[in-house]
């Protein structure tokens, strides 16, 4: 189970409280994307509602009636006889209607257990009205109901939501833990590939696995060239914008959005004090752009070109 590597302390904290009968009803599972927080939430939910493992197969299929998972829905709902496409484009947020449906379900008793687990994946995706509605359930939870809120940016959650939950923080894995996790998930990976994905993963096995097969070396080379030269004639960023705007390039586009702010941050760490402010400003703008680009479905060509301009602005006297 690679999603648990490096998170023993978090599991001990949760399981100790559960075994002692002092488990808080609300938990925020917080940390960067790709660390296995959702997998941890599913493991915690299973321990709550099925401690003996009687219904493990049902839980694996996602059909246990006492584990309810709330996440963003597909933009185009499947027809009645169709299954949900895992790669379908999703709505921007978890709606208040989804929370209201959840609250309606909570008026009934659990089906197979005396406990019920609610996984919100991710709580960052809640509409503000949905977050306020969820707050009511967190304030007065039904007996035996436990909330597991996965969060990639817990500081953005409503303060009132944070105050009603215990926090479990997940930190990026070190290189050795990354190696173990990636070897377990991809046993046939070469040593060279492993080193490359550890680098690109930045302590996140999920991110590294998402990047496999995307030829990130070419992307990194292009972005590094913009950083070092300023790309004065806009040639590199224009070529990237054309390439990454293609529909088939969506995975590489998303990888580009993750890598660009990280590359700026790496550059900032090596700069002299007088130049750091410019780099940190570029990093903040790049991070904000990356977050908006997917959530708001911004024009890809425009986003890539803007991101390239931020990369070009980092080095002194080299901006286009």
From TrEMBL:
GO BP: DNA-templated DNA replication
GO CC annotation terms, alphabetical: DNA polymerase III complex
Name of the protein this chain belongs to: DNA polymerase III subunit delta
Annotated Pfam families: DNA_pol3_delta2
């Amino acid at each position: 189970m690679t999603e648990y590597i490096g998170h023993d302390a978090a599991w001990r904290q949760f399981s100790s409280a559960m075994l002692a009968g002092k488990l808080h009803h609300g938990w925020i599972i917080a940390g960067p994307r790709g660390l296995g927080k959702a997998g941890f939430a599913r493991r915690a939910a299973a321990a709550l509602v099925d401690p003996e493992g009687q219904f493990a197969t049902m839980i694996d299929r996602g059909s246990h009636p006492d584990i309810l998972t709330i996440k963003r829905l597909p933009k185009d709902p499947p027809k009645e006889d169709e299954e949900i496409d895992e790669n379908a484009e999703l709505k921007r947020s978890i709606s208040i209607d989804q929370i209201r449906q959840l609250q309606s379900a909570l008026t009934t008793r659990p089906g197979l257990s005396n406990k019920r687990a609610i996984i919100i994946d991710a709580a960052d995706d809640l509409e503000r009205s949905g977050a306020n509605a969820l707050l009511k359930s967190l304030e007065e939870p039904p007996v035996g109901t436990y909330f597991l809120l996965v969060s990639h940016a817990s500081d953005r959650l409503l303060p009132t939501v944070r105050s009603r939950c215990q926090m479990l923080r997940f930190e990026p894995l070190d290189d050795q833990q990354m190696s173990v996790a990636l070897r377990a998930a991809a046993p046939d990976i070469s040593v060279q590939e492993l080193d490359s994905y550890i680098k690109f993963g930045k302590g996140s096995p999920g991110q590294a696995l998402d990047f496999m097969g995307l030829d990130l070396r070419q992307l990194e080379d292009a972005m590094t060239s913009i950083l070092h030269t300023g790309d004065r004639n806009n040639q590199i960023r224009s070529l990237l914008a054309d390439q990454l705007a293609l529909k088939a390039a969506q995975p590489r586009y998303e990888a580009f959005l993750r890598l660009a702010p990280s590359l700026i941050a790496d550059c900032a760490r090596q700069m002299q004090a007088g130049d750091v402010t410019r780099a940190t400003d570029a990093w903040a703008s790049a991070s904000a752009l990356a977050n908006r680009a997917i959530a708001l479905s911004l024009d890809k060509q425009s986003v890539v070109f803007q991101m390239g301009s931020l990369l070009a602005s980092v080095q002194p006297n080299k901006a286009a």
